[in-house]
Amino acid sequence: MSSQSHLRLRRNLISGLFVVIPLWVTFVAVTFIIDILVATGRPFVLTFARNVRSDYAVLADLLAQGWFQSALALLVVLAGLYVIGAAANAVIGRRILRMVDRVIDYVPLVKTIYSATRTLLNSLQTGNASGQRVVLIEFPSRDMRALGFVTATFIADDTGEEIAAVYVPTTPNPTSGYVELVPTKRLVFLDWSANDAMSFIVSGGAMTPGRIVMTPGRRDGPPITQPAAPVGEPVASPAASPLDNADAAR
Length: 250
Hints:
Layout: H1 3-52, H2 57-63, H3 66-89, H4 91-104, H5 108-126, E1 134-138, E2 145-155, E3 162-169, E4 177-183, E5 188-189, H6 194-202, H7 242-249
Antiparallel strand pairs: 1-2, 1-5, 2-3, 3-4
Helix pairs in contact: 1-2, 1-3, 3-4
């Protein structure tokens, strides 16, 4: 085999992999989610099939088919999620959710997991409408940047400096990550949407909006929601960041 044929073979194989791998990852992820939904709804379908067997034999035989059970179970779960969402947006639904929150507050371990998950999801869902912003932080070193989401801001008691809590997701699984406390003056504010940021993270940086800034303190969008500084308390000069101290030591 000539070198040109060898290069063509290798190039085509690699191109094929780059085409198939995203499709395979998408298929595995969607299949995993569908399997969870089907497994959730299947007990209801089986119960319904047992109840109608004596009166509707034809329907019971159809319900005995695996593919029909899966399709009906998926529809049942999707309908249930829709009803839950509609109820949660209604007044009585919000009252019920508040009651659930109060009950969960009495269960120590469950309270921690539930509260953290709800807070993170609410922050990512509401996006810029509630002040949550997509930012870059100096991590893991001063000359490198990591993409994150500002989930909260507050004032440091000792320095009077505005601090942002930044959630930094990992690639390709954004449900795990780090929480960093960063002075807001050292953040790089991006005008990316949450969807832009998530696409960038999950794709390993391959899917980018095509625009980015690297200068800390620059704001390309509306300012994040900031709490007022404590009234009557002196504001101390900003403390140097650990990265500054490390540079000074070197």
